[in-house]
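[SOLVED] Need 3D model of a two-part complex

Original post:
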Amino acid sequence: MAQAYSIERSTRASRITAIVALLALAALAAAPWWAGRADLRLLGEVYSFVALATLWNLLAGYAGLVSVGQQAYVGFGGYALFALAMFLGVHPLLAIVLAGIAGALIAIPVAPLLFRLQGAYFAIGTWVLAEVFRLGFAQVSSLGGGSGISLPAGVVAGIAASRPLREMLVYWVALAIAVAAIGFVVLLLRSRIGLALTALRDSELASESLGIDIWRTKLLVYVGVAGLTSMTGAFIFLQKLRVSPDAAFSVNDWTAYVIFIAVIGGIGTIEGPIVGTVIFFLLRETLADLGTTYLMILGAVAILVMLRAPQGLWGWFAARTGLTLVPVRRRVVFSDQSK
Amino acid sequence: MDWVNAIVQGVLIGGLYALFAAGLSLIFGVMRLVNIAHGDMIVAAAYLALVIVQATGLHPLASALLVVPLMALIGYAMQRVLLNPTIGKDLLSPLLVTFGISVILQNGLLVAFTADSRRLAAGSIETASIQLAPGLSLGVLPLLMFAASVLIIFGMELVFFRTSLGRAFRATSDDPEVAQLMNLNRNHVFGMAMALSAAVVAIAGIFLAIRTNFDPASGPARLIFGFEAVIIGGLGNLWGTLAGGVVLGVAQAVGAQISPGWQILAGHLVFFLVLGLRPRGLFPRMD
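Solution:
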């Protein structure tokens, strides 16, 4: 007996999530009116980690491109912002967007080289790239060489007339970057490319025989992620007001933390990196005085999660409740069962 | 003569890079695992040697008698407890577990030994040299290390192709399931591979400690040098890896001759050049 069916993506939970997310977004956008100056800074940092973890998750969790070198683009974005604002007099907020475009452009020739490395060796290749960027920028004396450079006060003052307005603008930019990163991943996963990625994840051979161009799909994802990561990096160093090779291309700050966030929250889910970031900051605020030990604890927790619950906290939770908050999966709904 | 000197020194340090690479390559060959903590294990072995030398007064080279078996034991345990449960499912889990180990090792060493850079003094052998020509002399120690590296790689080839352990490695590498049917315990074979890799890491750590200053953050660079030697030389070919290490060492020495800031950068650029022109490396294994 043939059954009538339809393909659905949204669930009731996802429709509720959409509404809640919009409300939360409105509340967060209004933060300059209800949060203090220090809170705004902290939130800005939270947003940049949400963006970085979400983007890394797209690479590793969906496209099978495990990178330990995303600090290459964080640092590149930071330096691009400084160069554009200082040498060309570009408005810093516009420079964030331009830094993103520059990051994507530089990723286009880099990706084909890195894609030649098979499997896990790709990961170390990305790290070498980050090292090349770090050592390369350390050679540029007009950007402060090895010791780094501060953003001139004149450039900072050029963002907006008054300090409160400036902080508000920078905050909104951070929120916009996080929303853009999540939006990019969700839209991408709902598109043809998303389907191609899912097919690739299940079997590269089978999907290639169905006409999916593996190389082009991966290139697109890699370049898109590079661009958005560079934008995030540009924002991070606009907030820090100082950039140096070691800070810009730090593997601990921009890759280790990000990987641990994604692993603990749940790789291969949209919600995981957000959950992971919240946990990361809660832990950090309480364990801040532990310093290096904090990083070791995070590493140990991430290993434990990898061994015991590789789908992460959110994956574990979703598997038990069947909850999908963000509609990226397609489900077959039979009409006589849907009631 | 400066240039000749630089190239000769580059060739000699290439042996050490090949030693960094050999353990990495072995692990990848047997279980398709890239151990991101490899460099940090080398540095940990260097600290282990430092502690042993300080505690017992042994000569650094003699400390290998203790460091090698200890590291092999640690490697075996690490593989059985942390890595075996993740192998075979996908690429992501083992990679991320080794990344976690790397971060823990690095920061653990930082807590235990501070960020000060250390060095192992090897006595009069450090300054001994053989004069080849006016202005060109070979250090006895670098020469000894190069010879030792070649011997160790030769030994690894022997283990891989002439012993029953090597046969088990190759069988598991070709087809883990069939190997298991042939009564090979996969978990034990993987453990032994990591133990052998860690034994080579121990030697590499001691050599590193004698040759240069090291600190808890030196690990990643050693991982990257080893990795570059593997890729430049060609996957799955240990002698190619030795050649890759030499190419990398010479590139760095020539870069340093141009400007100190270019030493490491030149090595990376040669790596990318080889990747662009000869993606399978200079001496790919015949397949």
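Edit: Chain A has a mean pLDDT of 89.
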